Each structure stands twice: as structure tokens, then as C-alpha cells.
Amino acid sequence: MRQRSQLIAWKVAGRVSDRHTSADEVVRETGWVFNNATGDHLTLADFVATGDDEVPAYLEAFGLRNSENHQQSMIEIGSGIGRMTAAFTREFDHVIAADLDIGFLERCHETVSRFGRADHLRTLEVADGRSLTLNDDSVDFAFSYLTLQHCAQADALNLAREAVRVTRSGGRIALNFRGPSRIDPLLLPLGTIVRFAFRLPRVGEWLSQRRSITRLAWQVSRISPSQVLAALGASIDGVTIWSGGPVDDLQGAFRRGRFEGINENHWWITATVV
Ligand SMILES: C[S@@+](CC[C@H](N)C(=O)[O-])C[C@H]1O[C@@H](n2cnc3c(N)ncnc32)[C@H](O)[C@@H]1O
User: Residue ranges of the domains in the chain?
Assistant: First the structure.
């Protein structure tokens, strides 16, 4: 089956990271794919430390950090090699790390074995990049960071619906998106060209180790809060839209949260599942 264009840069990076023998080497060569950090001396421990800082920070900012988490379950959509997953397994009793690349999921397991609670972890391949092979009401909480912005719009909206479907009634979601910006007319077509180049034999693997070019390949789609709210409709309640700055198209009866430190083009939705 021909690889869908928006998945290709991840699959190639997954293949490249598979070849490295040590996790520290993976972090030095492809770790920037997950948190932008680069450097010859980076280690898996440094990488996981960034997730250890961010997980409590996001949960606290969103009012989602409490002692009940220790008895609860969650799904992390787009876990990668486990930068944040290790911290989630210490915070929650049962964590499902979901990603489209099986190689990343294997690395995620290794990361959690060293820095988290592997006994709290299960991995889930998102084979089609848009659906979660889980029953309805499987978890208490669904989380996604730096992932839905890399999906085609229809896939991202479907994954948002899937996040709600697999979360029990009364459970919570916290999903991160990238909204439209002025440079999109340049970035999005460049992204299409670079993704095409990723298909060329050997070129893709070379490209996947070049940060600025790979970042262009990720420029797939933009999604505004109103699109997500329309997709989720009455299935959610108690909505807050969080941003670091103004969000243009917001209308309606939900709270706006301000979160210093959010990338100016990013926004989050938190909500309770009805
Ligand atoms: C920038 S990384 C972020 C990883 C992690 N959330 C973190 O902050 O370290 C994006 C991850 O999303 C995964 N991904 C991209 N598109 C996806 C999709 N359609 N379904 C599931 N995972 C996807 C990639 O394989 C990659 O591991």
C-alpha cells in the first residue's frame, strides 16, 4: 500500500532511529524530532527530563493533576519514543502510548522501562493515522501534544473524535493543535514538496536527519478551535480553549485560558466527555 504523504516523514525517522543501537544515540540523532533539542552530548535521561518537567506543568495548568490520577487510565496520542510517557506512567495507573510508528513504540517501551513504570504501560499502533483500535469508554483521560498538527485535517479531527469516543463519560481530554498563521501560504506548499522528496530512495533517510527540512515536511494542516468544536459537538462539555495569545475565530460559551509559554501558533482544548 502506498504510504500516505502526511505519515511518511515519521515512518522514515522511525526507520532511521531503529538502526541506532543505543537510546542515547537515538536521542542525539532523532530526538530533536520530539522536543527540538540538539547536541552531541544529549542523553535519554536529558530527553526524559524535559517530559518530567512538562507533564506536571500541563496537568497543573489545566487543573488535571490530582491524587485520583494514580488510580486512573489515560491514552497519549502521538507518544513518540516516550519523552512524556515515562512521567505519565508515574502519574497514572495505566497508560496507553499510541503512535503510528511501531519502531517509536518499541523505543517508548525502553524509555519507560528505564525512567518510568513499564508495568503501567501498554502501546497501541495507530496504523491508519486516524483511528484508535480501542473500545468505547476505555480510559479516564486522553492527551495529545505536538501530534495533531502533523496530521491531515480530516485525520486530526477524526483522532479528536476518537479521543472522545475512547474516554469514558465524565473523563477529560487535553488536545493540542496548531492554528492558522500568516506564513501558511508559504509553509504548507513547501511541506508538500518536501514530503514528496521523502519518497525518493535514500533521499528520505538523508532528509530525516536534517532538522530544518524535516520540520518543513511536518507542515501538513492547520486547525482552528471552531473546526474542532464543530467536530466534537455535544459530545463534550466544560470546554476551555487555551492559548498564549488571541485566538481569532473564537465565539461561543466556553472559557478561554491563557497559558504563558504556549507557542503563539498553538492552542489546546480541554473538556469533559459527556
Ligand atoms: C513531534 S512528535 C511528539 C511526540 C510527543 N508527544 C512529545 O511531545 O515528545 C509527534 C509524534 O506523533 C506521531 N504521529 C504523527 N502523526 C500521527 C498520527 N496520525 N497518528 C498517531 N501518531 C502520529 C509521530 O510518529 C511522532 O511520534
Answer: 10-182+220-273
CA 79 / ligand 1 centre spacing (Å): 6
Distances (CA, A) of 205 to 13, 141, 177, 208: 7, 35, 27, 5
pLDDT greater than 70 at residue 253: no
Give me ligand 1 centre to Cα 77, in Å: 7
Residue among 133, 150, 155 to mutate when testing ligand 1 (max atoms within 8 A of CB): 150
pLDDT at position 112 is 97
Q: Which CATH superfamily is domain 10-182+220-273 in?
A: Vaccinia Virus protein VP39 (3.40.50.150)
User: Do the Cβ atoms of 254 and 240 come closer than 8 Å?
Assistant: yes
Mean pLDDT computed over 239-265: 75
| pTM of full prediction above 0.85 | yes
pLDDT digits (tens, 9 = 90+) for 165-192: 999 999 999 999 998 888 888 888 998 8
> Grid coordinates standing for 48?
526524559
* Rounded-to-integer distance, Cα 182 and Cα 145, Å: 22
Indicate which residue's Cα is closest to atom 19 of ligand 1.
Answer: 129
Pocket of ligand 1, candidates 16, 99, 112: which has the most ligand atoms within 8 Å of its Cβ, to mutate? 99
Ligand 1 pocket (Cβ < 6 Å) reads 10, 33-35, 78-80, 83-84, 99-101, 104, 126, 129, 145-147, 150-151, 155
Give the tens place of pLDDT for each residue, 239-249: 999 987 666 66
Using the mean position of ligand 1's atoms as its centre, give its distance from the Cα of residue 252 in Å. 30
3-state DSSP assignment of residue 269: strand
Nearest to 115 by CA among 52, 176, 163, 71: 52
